[in-house]
Amino acid sequence: MKKQPALEQGRRPCFGVFMAIKTLFVTRLYQDAIDDPALVTELERSCRALAQDDKAGRAWSKANGYPGYTSYASLNDLPMRDPVIAELKRILDRHAQRFATESFLDLGRRKPKLDSLWVNILKPGGGHSGHLHPHSMISGTFYVCVPPGAGTLKLEDPRLPMMMAAPGRTADAPEDSRPFVYAEPATGTILLWESWLRHEVMAGAAKSERISISFNYS
């Protein structure tokens, strides 16, 4: 009779296999960057020009307490209006496709399609409260201008409403075990996530405006 190998130190058989702790139900955050300073500079000019010319956007921002300017509710055709933003869209399309592939999203022969895109200019100290993006598949932000001290992006564990009596996590818990993760983008950073992931922009201590372009893919 063949002799069974000795158990490794500290491991015990459990239901026919060795005891293990697995990581399940992964929430992915995609991060990359556009290394094209000329394009980023042109995008900043376009964003600032929009903030000056878009009276409807400024009025909506003021009426809704947005601390700065956003084109979210006023302009829905920016890639058609501005060739610089159209170039950004072409780049974002490739990143959205890559994220969908790396996230194993079953799209058949279809590709992610840009559904909306808008400019955000946050004043110093401004933030954006927690929210998600319904009716979309992939959401994200390209960071045009991130001054020192600008607010981080806070991402929330989607299981929080169901945790009830669960204890908090220890100070040395790894990032994938924390209830909140804070992403610190720089100028040129692209971040993508699935649209159901709740997130917010924290108020920062920057002395100048934080400029970004957010978007949704369906």
General description of the model:
The structure is a single chain. With about 220 residues, this protein is of the alpha+beta class. The chain has one domain: Jelly Rolls, CATH 2.60.120.620. It has four helices and twelve strands; from the N terminus they run βββααβααββββββββ. The protein has helices at about 35-55, 55-65, 80, 85-100; strands at about 15, 15-20, 30-35, 70, 115-120, 130, 140-145, 155, 180-185, 190-195, 200, 210-215. A six-stranded antiparallel sheet has the order 3-10-7-12-5-4. Strands 6-11-8-9 form a four-stranded antiparallel sheet, with no helix packed on it. The chain has a two-stranded antiparallel ribbon with strand order 1-2. The chain starts with 12 loop residues before the first strand and ends with a strand. About 25% of the residues are buried. The mean pLDDT is about 90.
Please give the CATH class.
Answer: Mainly Beta
Tell how many strands the DSSP assignment holds: 12
Q: Looking at the structure, what is the overall shape? A: globular
Secondary structure tally, helices:
4
Mean pLDDT across the residues is 92
Name of the CATH homologous superfamily: q2cbj1_9rhob like domain
Largest sheet: 6 strands, antiparallel
The end-to-end span amounts to 61 Å
Estimated share of beta-strand residues: 25-35%
| Side-by-side strand order of the widest sheet | 3-10-7-12-5-4
The helix-strand sequence is: EEEHHEHHEEEEEEEE
